[in-house]
Known about the structure:
By secondary structure, the chain is of the alpha/beta class. It has 19 helices and eight strands.
Amino acid sequence: MSKRTRTQAKLIHIQGRRAEAFRQLREGISDQEILCAPLDIGKNVHWAAFHTGDGQLLHAPFEVSTLKTGYERYVQTLDELVAAHRPRLVILGHEPTGVYHESWARNLLTRYADHLAERATPRFVYQWVNSYQVKLNRTQTTLSFNKTDLLDLGAIGDLLLRGLGFPARLPSDTDLLVRQEVYALRATQAEQRRVGNRIIGLFDQLIPGALLNPRRLARAHPELDVPSPLATRPLERQLVEALITLCPNPYDILALGNPGIIALFHEHGYRCGPKTADKLLAVVQRALLPPADVAPAFAAILQREFAHYQFLSTQRAAALASLETLLPHTRARHLLPIPGTSAHLLARYLTGVGNLDDVLFAGQIWKKAGMTPTLYSSGDVVIYGQMSKQGDPFFRDTLYLLGYQLALHCPYFGDAFLNAIERGKSETEATIHAAHKVNRVFFHLLQHDEPFDPPDIPDYPAFARHGEARMQRYLAQKKQSRQRKTATRRRPRKQPH
Length: 497
């Protein structure tokens, strides 16, 4: 059975499963028996309105403060309207705007918990609507691009009455901490990359050519002699850390000489022998240095930027340590023992998935990341295009990294990777195949809260040994292929006349 046929077989409502559930919710309830309460969330002021299912206003739109007094006024008005009109269904809803909705959302979920769980009457439905949907609805209604709070209220109310929202759910305390640590890590890493680039630039201004990339230089200019750099991946090297911390001014390095450099490093607990000191002096001596009166200014800025970089490294380490502590208390505890996973990647995956109660099948997660192919279907024409990329790129990158790491370290997922390679797929395509399998398995384990134990492989240890051998052969062939390409690309150097 084709994908199209399977989809058609599952179709109950022309708008899909969500619309059918909302139709069943409204069945037997007239428009006059529905109270719709749209909210337009703002930073300091919210707009509220109350109307029936056919749009008749029960209370004129009004502004309320985001503070406690505004919230109390809003819920008091809502309770009075429920008592006066006795609706059978109350639909609350708004956009999940930044962080400004969270305080009201948590209090509304607590206050009307019995109504939302159908333990009290009338029944309440609390939903959030997508901001882009609100924009499109507003444009469709007004046929213009004007935006006002009243137009947004009308658009939100219309979407709620058509069942186009999604359940309002906020994470638990542990899940919230995991998400906040992931957001903090993401911001810290981005800032650290920017600071690192500034450090490399300042270092090049102080000691030009000290941190060059020899492989890239040789590839681009094979006719030139390639000097040895001070260090590759410099921001991870203790030599560069010691140099920036103790003596960033190149003129001071020249004045110290070989014995002075060794003594300075040893005095502050850094390792340094004659070869390291000779290498450092050689790099400084070959460089075209800036004037002696300019170098101290560059050195001072370099030290300050490096101190900031080290602080960000400390923040990153603290966030990773926090995730190591938090994840065993989440549903991801069964994913941690799988070879190739890490607390950071699993936390990124959980954050991207969001609330698991809103996910019906693994394909929804795959689509949320924008990993599904585009689809055009009309009449006799069905075209599957490239990856849609209509999703969060950070989450997409997370799935890709999980696919690659687990393919390398866990034979169960490496099997999907290597099978794709043997079918002629590129490494990127094979990684996506592995990531697809990782996503399906992870979702199943999270949904059923069970450990990883492949049920379809009777002798898993033998399968794992065979898979590890296959992966080692693939990596060896990949290394040989890379070396052949490098050798063919490298042209012979020109001989002097």
